[in-house]
Write a structure and sequence with these properties.
Glycoside hydrolase family 1 protein; about 40% helix; alpha/beta; three-stranded mixed beta sheet; single chain; about 425 residues; TIM Barrel
Length: about 425
């Protein structure tokens, strides 16, 4: 089957600074990973050493056939103490951007990808009314220094993720408050020790440690989206040619008979109610991995016979097309797929996932929907937060004892699609095999 993607389509992959760079010592997550009794499977440590090996990784992207790279600039490196900006780290990211230029890779920069400076958490984190100002100040500084090299910027990654996290906690019936007051079990004792260490580390009560990845109050959600608005305004002042968006994680929300109202509520809760914050954006960053099916009593469990990913999600690559179509009906702006992928140790299933996802992207484009790029998650097998290095999303495997890179068959498969489309003449057709 032949597909023609638009000229200038962005073919790439994504990473997040904390997950790949290593030694992000001033961030909240570094603190939490290294506490006694930490809930993390393992600390990030050197991660996959992308901080040192970024030139090699970006050159490999170009060699594989990609023309775009979505990565994040780490706030905790740029502003390790409030109001103290590290020029050396700015120069590091300037070098990353130069490596993109040298390899004809379009950079798509995310300014906040889950991790925050530890000082921000000590100052109230993502529940503090001061955070939008502080975030906009950081964004303004970065873009004043580097904006002429950044054509696309995402302010905040998955601004709505706390809603999904709250649902997961409810679904698994995790009673964090009960643990904090003390359950007489080994787990409860361990968690009590962790919360005590957490309190000492941030000098606040554990319930006041408002990192980005956590349950959120309604006030906190407003603060996150207001931070986006203030950052967007600040960036426009210092880098007016940069196109600005936000990214949100969206399920393909479906329903069975009787579940229509539950599905409608979920769509509003996770996406529709935030549209007012997005209307001045230049593009929408869409992130999708699977679907969610609702019945009369809420979200249904994944069928026992369904194929599941390493993350426990349903393997469902066709979700991407459905979500692109839904978003396009709601927002009058280009859509950039900033993340889409699958955690699996069976790379042939990743290849099949990519093929089906891109078939859906092409169908959307053929129907006139302005999809401007596809960023696969992720470029490298990396640090998957609390789950450590056990989950493999990457197009490229990494031997962490040597930090050697090994492109998987899926990397060559995806790269061939990208390269064929990029090099095709206007009248030619490219092929998804």
């Amino acid at each position: 089957m032949s597909y023609h993607f638009p000229e200038g389509f962005l073919w790439g992959a994504s990473t997040a600074a904390h997950q790949v760079e290593g030694n992000n010592v001033n961030s909240d997550f570094w603190v939490m990973e290294n506490l006694d009794g930490s809930t993390f499977k393992e600390p990030s440590g050197d991660a996959v050493d992308h901080y040192r090996l970024f030139r090699e990784d970006i050159a490999l992207m170009e060699k594989l056939g990609m023309n775009a790279y979505r990565f994040s600039i780490e706030w905790a490196r740029i502003e390790p103490e409030e109001g103290v900006f590290n020029e050396t780290e700015i120069e590091h990211y300037r070098d990353v951007l130069k490596a993109c230029q040298e390899n004809k890779i379009t950079p798509i920069v995310t300014l906040h990808h889950f991790t925050s400076p530890a000082w921000l958490i000590r100052s109230g984190g993502w529940e503090s009314a001061e955070t939008p100002f502080r975030f906009a100040r950081y964004c303004s500084y970065v873009m004043r220094k580097l904006g002429d090299m950044i054509p696309y910027v995402c302010t905040i990654n998955e601004a709505n993720i706390s809603i999904g996290i709250a649902k997961i906690i409810k679904r698994h019936q995790i009673n964090a408050s009960a643990v904090q007051v003390g359950i007489n079990t080994d787990k409860g004792t361990r968690m009590q020790a962790y919360y005590a260490a957490l309190s000492d580390a941030f000098n606040v009560h554990p319930q006041e440690v408002h990192s980005f990845l956590g349950p959120r109050t309604e006030k906190g959600l407003e603060i996150i989206f207001q931070a986006h608005v203030e950052a967007r305004n600040a960036i426009r002042c210092v880098s007016p040619s940069t196109r600005i968006g936000i990214t949100m994680s969206l399920y393909d929300i479906q329903s069975i008979s009787g579940g229509e109202k539950q599905a409608e509520h979920a769509l509003n809760e996770e996406f529709l109610r935030f549209q007012a914050y997005l209307k001045e954006d230049d593009f929408f960053g869409l992130q999708n991995y699977t679907r969610a099916v609702y019945g009369p009593d809420g979200m249904l469990p994944i069928p026992d016979d369904a194929e599941k990913t390493q993350m426990g999600n349903e393997y469902y690559p066709q979700a991407l097309e459905a979500v692109i179509r839904y978003v396009a009906k709601q927002l009058d702006m280009p859509v950039l797929v900033t993340e889409n992928g699958v955690a699996t140790d069976q790379d042939e299933r990743r290849i099949a996932f990519i093929q089906r996802a891109l078939t859906g992207v092409h169908a959307c484009i053929a129907d006139g929907i302005p999809v401007i790029g596809y960023m696969h998650w992720s470029l490298l097998d990396n640090f998957e937060w609390q789950l450590g290095f056990s989950k493999t999303f990457g197009l490229i495997a990494v031997d962490r004892t040597t930090q050697q890179r090994y492109p998987k068959p899926s990397a060559y498969y995806y790269g061939k699609i990208a390269a064929t489309n990029r090099l095709a003449d206007e009248d030619s057709q490219s092929i998804v095999e």
